[in-house]
C-alpha cells in the first residue's frame, strides 16, 4: 500500500497556462506578453506552481527558462489538462454551433498548425462542417477580402481583419542533404512565383548582406519548390515548418544572413462573419496557442 506523505494538490489552471507559456516562449518576458501579466506576476506564479508540486520545473541559469526533467513531464500533463478544460467549456458553451466553416491555410502549415486547430474545433463543435482551402498566404488574403473563406492562416501582416498570432517560427535556409554551397558564386535560389513572402525575404536579406544571387528555379507550388531543392538545384528560404529529413539547414556559419522570424496569423473576415467563425475566433482568444518552434 502506498502512503501519501501529503495531500495531492489541486493544480490551478491559471498557473498551468502561464507555465505552458513560459515553456513555449523560453522566458518569463515572452510568457508575460502571452498571458497579459507582468513579468513579476509570471515569476510569482511559477514559484507557486513549484511549491504546489514540490519540484523544480525550470533550470536556474541565464534568462532562458529551460525545463528540468520534472518540468518536461509537467509540460505534457499541463497541455493535456488545459486542452480537456477548454474542450469541455467550449462544447458546453457553444453546443449549438453548426453550419459550414471555410478555413484557408498555406501549404506549409497544413501538417503543423492546421491539424491542432481542426482537432480543437471538431471535438468542441461536432456539428460543424469544416472545409479547408490550401493556397499561398497572399492568395488567402484575397479570398478573405472577397469572403471566399471565413478564416485564414497567413504570414501576411494586415490590420484590416481581426487577428490572432498562432505561432512565431524561425525562417531558415534549406538545401539538399548532399548540397555543396559555393559562396563565391551567385547563390542559386529556388523560389515560388510571385507573390511570395519568402521570395522577397530571401532576396532582400541577401542584398543587404552584399551576397550575389540568381534565380535558379521558379515553382508554382511549395511541393514543386521542395522537389527542386531536394534535387540540388539551389537553396530556398522557408520557415521551420518545412523541416524534414530530406533537407539540410544552412546558416550564418555557411556565410548566409540570418533570416527573421515569421508570424503565422489567424485572420477572420471582417465583412459579416458567420456565427461559427465569430465563436471560434473569440474562443481562441482565451487559449494559449502562440508558441515558438
Automatic annotation (TrEMBL):
<protein>
    <submittedName>
        <fullName>Transcriptional regulator LrhA</fullName>
    </submittedName>
</protein>
<dbReference type="Pfam" id="PF03466">
    <property type="entry name" value="LysR_substrate"/>
</dbReference>
<dbReference type="GO" id="GO:0003677">
    <property type="term" value="F:DNA binding"/>
</dbReference>
<dbReference type="Pfam" id="PF00126">
    <property type="entry name" value="HTH_1"/>
</dbReference>
<feature type="domain" description="HTH lysR-type">
    <location>
        <begin position="11"/>
        <end position="68"/>
    </location>
</feature>
<keyword id="KW-0804">Transcription</keyword>
<dbReference type="InterPro" id="IPR036388">
    <property type="entry name" value="WH-like_DNA-bd_sf"/>
</dbReference>
<keyword id="KW-0238">DNA-binding</keyword>
<dbReference type="InterPro" id="IPR036390">
    <property type="entry name" value="WH_DNA-bd_sf"/>
</dbReference>
<comment type="similarity">
    <text>Belongs to the LysR transcriptional regulatory family.</text>
</comment>
<dbReference type="GO" id="GO:0003700">
    <property type="term" value="F:DNA-binding transcription factor activity"/>
</dbReference>
<dbReference type="InterPro" id="IPR050176">
    <property type="entry name" value="LTTR"/>
</dbReference>
<dbReference type="InterPro" id="IPR000847">
    <property type="entry name" value="LysR_HTH_N"/>
</dbReference>
<keyword id="KW-0805">Transcription regulation</keyword>
<dbReference type="InterPro" id="IPR005119">
    <property type="entry name" value="LysR_subst-bd"/>
</dbReference>
